[in-house]
Amino acid sequence: MTVIGTGYLGATHAACMAELGFEVLGVDTNAQRIEELSRGELPFHEPDLPDLLRKHVASGKLRFTTSIQEAAEFGDVHFIAVGTPQRAGENAADMQYVDAAIVSLAGAIRKDALIVGKSTVPVGSSRRLKGLIREVSHPSANIDFAWNPEFLREGFAVQDTLRPDRLVVGTDSTSADQKLRQVYADALSRKTPFISTDFETAELVKVAANAFLATKISFINAFSEVVEVVGGDIRTLADAIGHDARIGRRFLNAGVGFGGGCLPKDIRALQARVSELGLDHTMQFLNEVDEINLRRRERVVHLVTEELGVLSGKSIAILGSAFKPNSDDVRDSPALDIAAKLFNSGADVRIYDPKANKNAAIRFPRLTYCDSLQEVMEDADIGVLLTEWDEFRMMKPTDFNLKVRQKNIVDGRNVLNPQEWRDAGWRFSALGHRPETL
Ligand code: NAD
Ligand code: UGA
What we know:
By secondary structure, this protein is α/β, with parallel strands linked by helices. It folds into three domains: 2-196, NAD(P)-binding Rossmann-like Domain (Rossmann fold), CATH 3.40.50; 206-288, N-(1-d-carboxylethyl)-l-norvaline Dehydrogenase, domain 2, CATH 1.10.1040; 294-437, NAD(P)-binding Rossmann-like Domain (Rossmann fold), CATH 3.40.50.720. The protein is 45% helix and 13% strand. Helix 1 links the parallel strand 1 (2-4) and strand 2 (24-27). The protein is globular, with a radius of gyration of 23 Å. It starts with a strand and ends in an 8-residue tail after the last strand. Bound molecules: nicotinamide-adenine-dinucleotide and uridine-5'-diphosphate-glucuronic acid (UGA).
């Protein structure tokens, strides 16, 4: 099989398919990425993936190329895993990479093959792409088509791919359905639900899942805004409602909110798509979900400003730049956004992230990047925890007593114990808590 697009999704899918025993060819237009992957080097951080990549590059089961021609000749099943980022200046998804990948691949195929879309796309895309395939395909090709959205989480990508909690396939072809059941035979042998449906449902399942997760996060963050005024404890509130099995505790962690390459752009693309369909009001609540989320970032800037007074000349230690722990992905990262806002307000902003410094520095080269937690906290006027890496969750107030300029910490992810820090003489603030009075 082939996997077209070898980013966070595609590289993981390719290595996991090799692990399941398939001969896999990964394809990307980014030649540097293909060179690195061919050497068995993963160009991003994802737990467990480096081992799988090395193992299957060494065994010869997993190869990489920039040639779509080679892919068309090699593959029986082709997975499309290219990006669908937010279009510049708009909410809609940019489909140019999916269209280009499918048109070039379908035009080059000269045999029986199955093309399977995995990227997250606006509803209606599969049917349109199926028409495109028909237009460009050669008479000697017989191309089947399905959409099989992906639900993996960064940080758990290998586990989620090898042990998915469900498989969703949208197609109007029985043979495509049958072939995908063979591809996923391992998961099916473990009774993983296999939801076989039409194109539109498959596309909507994907965006509905991400919209629901985003809504859950903004729901608890809206309560944070209330608690910050009336007092109370947001973690206890989340725990208490989470005990209700109908609600569930997961994705109710209040803090600086959601970022990354998916949730933010997917809720915007969904709104844009339903508006195009004439349903202007239907997904309007997602606008509110987005706004609540973005307000959390402003809130941290406000909190830090209240704590320090003028920001100019103050040294701010930012703990974390990745959009979440166990990832080096800084796409739409709340942490990096807040760091940039503080920098633009005149503060001396120093950042440490265990894995994402390199990507963060590409995006914001003017911030100062540190190599350790101790280094970033040195002479800081305030520490601001924005990505809940274990290293930060485990830190103790006594780790920094002699280093910092002021004992002042902001917990943007609600993972520290307020009493422990206050008992050690620190000022402690967190999202979802009423601020301490000065
Ligand atoms: P990414 O930006 O990390 O990777 C996309 C890759 O596609 C890049 O390496 C790019 O060079 C390559 N590409 C672009 N055009 C190409 C072409 N014509 N031919 C070959 N390669 C091409 O993106 P990602 O995070 O892997 O996401 C990919 C898609 O999967 C998106 O639609 C995303 O919403 C969806 N998705 C991502 C995740 C995730 O955790 N990252 C999870 C589920 C779904
Ligand atoms: C998300 C979904 O969880 C995946 O199922 C989906 O496949 C993927 O998007 C996608 O479509 O690409 P991911 O972006 O890797 O996965 O990360 P999540 O674990 O969902 O976290 C997203 C953001 O929400 C992070 O910034 C995280 O810090 C934040 N978050 C998460 C909270 O603020 N609170 C929570 O309780 C949970």
